[in-house]
Structure formats: C-alpha cells, structure tokens
Design goal:
By secondary structure, this protein is α+β, with helices and mostly antiparallel strands. The protein folds into 2 domains: 62 residues, no CATH class; 138 residues, no CATH class. Helices cover 29% and strands 20% of the residues. It has 7 helices and 12 strands. The strands form 4 sheets. It has a 4-stranded mixed β-sheet. A 4-stranded antiparallel β-sheet has the order 6-10-9-8, with helices on both faces. It is globular and about 65 Å long. The termini are far apart.
Length: 282
C-alpha cells in the first residue's frame, strides 16, 4: 500500500488519519492505518491541524460549544481582564487563569472587575491554514466516500490531475495559495429535522460531500458549525464554484428539501453567561 499523499510504502504505518481533527469533535470520520503514512500524519498534525485549531475562530467555537481536545481536556479561550487571561468553563464555573501577578492582585483586590470575551463568529477569509486543511480533507474524504478499496486507492494515489493539490498540501508546492470559498449558511447550534435521519431534532457538527459542475469540475464541500467551505480538486481557483452558485440561485449544496431547520438555538454564543466565576493564579 502507498500513502495517498507522499506515495511512499505505508504498509507498516500505525496511524489512523482523522479527516477532521478530533479536537473539532470528529470521532467518526477517519481513514484506516496505511492510507496516510505515519510521516504524513505527523506532518499534518503539527503543520496544518495545530495552526488551524489555534486560529481565534476555531479556539473560540470549541470553547463556546464545549468541544474537548483529543486528550479529553476542555478548550481554553483568551479574554481581557486587566490584560490577556486564559478562560475555561465547566457546568458551574467560568474559570479565569493568569500568570501575571499584577492582574491577579487586581482581581483579588477587586480593582479589576470587568472582563471582555471576544466573540469570533467565523474565520478570517483567505487563510493559508484553512486552505491547506481543506485540501487535505478533500483528498481524504474522496477515499472515505468511495471506500478503502485497493483499486480506488491506486486511482487516487496515482491520478496525475490530483498531484498539484497533493503536493500543495504535503510539500507547499505551487500554487502559493489554493483558493477556497467560505460563507455561513446557518448558525451554530441551529437544530434540524429529517425523518430519514432521526426521529428527534439534531444539530450538525460537520458534514461533507462532493459536487460536479456542468463543466466537469469536482468540488469538495465541507460544513463545520454552519460555515460552508469549498475547494476545487481540479484547480487552485474557486471561480467555478461561484459560477455554480449563480446558476443554482445560491443554494447550499449539502442542504436537502428533506432537512428542515426547526429551531434557532445560538446556545454557543452565551453558554457561559450566568456561571459563577473562579480565579486561578500560580
């Protein structure tokens, strides 16, 4: 077996590859050992996923929605309370943590009483970390959709038209930036109902699929917490998808007529309000 990214032999690799990081709540969508070799798996974890998760939006959305990291630890966010402080929360408390003795003294003495907690509603556009993550996820999702059948593995690994996106992700080769499309299509915490999926309303943490344009261009569509991200597997430009949107009146390609939004529930926006506050100092 060959790794779908570096094309090196990967029969002895021990890593399973999560298409979306576990620290974004993904426990289901992953590839078996060997499809992505240990070397590429480690590279993606350090060079792509870690910078992605440290972006203000992803840190904030994980904090708001109580998404733990892969080790089961709660996500911390940053706030301002006499200076930069770390913020954590549990079911009862909002925790303020600082190593700055001046801030700590001001809080203890009651001189510092107000806290500013920035709200990041979506990532900044045209971010290289988001771009590389989407391209990585696109190739991996392609395998996930067709199944780890050797014939399909060979097709994806050896397909020359996928070498450009593959080398962009793994080695940083040209183009210098792979364009992607980004827009919010529903709010985090919104609830949906589809009788073919569940008898009860549900939230959507993430979902993905592929669509073809009339011109035969293949697009990867990934929705995380209501934000739709799209890349083309055919080229590093996204103009073809924008044309598709115009042709389809702005329709979100992953939303179907069977799936109905039944409740607006922006619980993640203010899930810390009303909690008691505790302070931690070294």
């Amino acid at each position: 077996m060959k790794c779908i990214f570096c094309k090196c032999l990967s029969d002895n690799s021990k890593s399973i590859e999560h298409i979306i990081p576990e620290s974004l709540g993904n426990k289901k969508h992953y590839l078996p050992r060997g499809i992505v070799c240990d070397s590429c798996n480690n590279y993606f974890a350090v060079k792509i996923e870690k910078p992605l998760l440290e972006l203000p939006y992803f840190r904030s959305v994980r904090f708001r929605n109580d998404i733990e990291n892969k080790k089961g630890r709660p996500t911390l966010d940053k706030g301002i309370m006499g200076g930069i402080v770390s913020i954590g929360k549990d079911e009862q408390f909002l925790h303020i943590m600082t190593e700055n003795p001046v801030i700590a003294k001001g809080i203890i003495n009651g001189h510092i009483k107000h806290m500013i907690l920035p709200f990041n509603s979506e990532p900044e556009s045209n971010d290289i970390n988001v771009s590389k993550f989407l391209c990585k996820a696109a190739l991996e999702s392609l395998i996930y959709r067709v199944g780890p059948v050797q014939e399909w593995l060979d097709e994806v690994t050896e397909h020359p038209q996928l070498d450009t996106i593959r080398n962009y992700v793994r080695y940083g080769n040209k183009p210098s930036f792979w364009e992607y499309h980004q827009r919010r299509i529903y709010q985090e915490g919104d609830e949906f109902f589809n009788k073919n999926v569940s008898k009860e309303p549900y939230e959507i943490l993430h979902e993905f699929n592929f669509i073809y344009s009339d011109e035969g261009e293949l697009f990867y569509v990934l929705v995380i917490m209501g934000i739709e991200f799209v890349v083309s597997l055919s080229s590093g430009e996204i103009s073809g998808y924008r044309k598709w949107l115009i042709q389809n009146a702005g329709k979100a390609p992953l939303q179907t007529d069977d799936e109905l939004k039944v409740r607006n529930n922006p619980r993640g926006v203010n899930s810390w309000i009303g909690k008691k506050i505790s302070f931690y100092t070294p």
